[in-house]
Design brief:
The chain contains 7 helices and 6 strands. It has a 6-stranded parallel beta sheet, with helices on both faces.
Length: 250
């Protein structure tokens, strides 16, 4: 089951058509590395902690951005498999980028229920990118989906909108994605991280698509500021995707 039946038109990544039909909202990734240091006992303890088995039985649902599709998650799924996930527990939800994010969120709710039924899991984890943040937030907050979600990882999510959406305002989804929209107000008012779900975001000043780049941050989440990563770069950044896999396994 790698994708939903409803597929959005394919567009080249990173291309914005002057006609406002190609705002590509994909995510930027944080790059972080830590060098081993300290005494030999401390190093041994760190190595021991590093080999602790991760909790990788939770199904993961990936939610793409504007004009995206399941293929955006090829690298991410590879990283998750390398961290112990079975391919049978990795899913990509697809939706209509040019429709309505309320409908898209309702579709996500149905998709999550299908994944839970297929895997027997009581909860799933969601990893979203760009406009997928809006779809996910509406599902968790407005539709009560937080009760079915253990972890929410938002990669360069347009969680508080982006002025870049001004290039495609002929579409309802882009109107909803513009800062100050009623849709944004609905998902950002009150508690932005409801329920017992663990929330985390990754954002960068080098994003270039999420404007302002701090739009991704969620109150109550673990917000990871990446030194410099482009919006599209997140999709193939194995270091950051590895961080996300470990977050989901926590």
């Amino acid at each position: 089951m790698g994708s939903a039946s409803r597929r959005s038109p394919r567009r080249p990544l990173g291309v914005l058509a002057a006609t406002a039909a190609a705002l590509t909202l994909f995510s930027s990734v944080t790059t972080a590395g830590a060098a081993e240091s300290g005494s030999a006992p401390a190093q041994a303890q760190a190595r021991s902690a590093a080999v602790q088995p991760l909790s990788t039985s939770t199904p993961v649902v990936f939610v793409h951005g504007y004009t995206g599709n399941a293929s955006n998650w090829v690298t991410a799924m590879s990283v998750f498999r390398a961290n112990g996930w079975s391919s049978a527990n990795l899913f990509a939800y697809e939706y209509n980028s040019y429709g309505n994010n309320v409908t898209n969120a309702q579709g996500l709710a149905s998709y999550v229920n299908t994944v839970k039924a297929r895997t027997g899991a009581s909860k799933v984890a969601i990893v979203n990118h760009s406009m997928g943040g809006l779809v996910s937030q509406y599902y968790l907050k407005v539709l009560g989906g937080n009760t079915s979600v253990s972890h929410l990882a938002s990669i360069a999510g347009a969680n508080h909108g982006t002025t870049y959406a001004g290039a495609c305002l002929i579409y309802t989804t882009c109107q909803q994605m513009y800062p100050g929209s009623s849709f944004i107000s609905q998902i950002s008012s009150g508690d932005e991280t409801p329920g017992s779900t663990k929330y985390a975001t990754w954002y960068s000043a080098c994003d270039g698509i999420i404007l302002p780049y701090t739009s991704t941050r969620l109150d109550g989440a673990t917000n990871n500021n990446v030194v410099c990563q482009t919006h599209i770069g997140y999709l193939t950044d194995t270091v950051v995707l590895g961080q996300i896999a470990r977050f989901v396994a926590s």
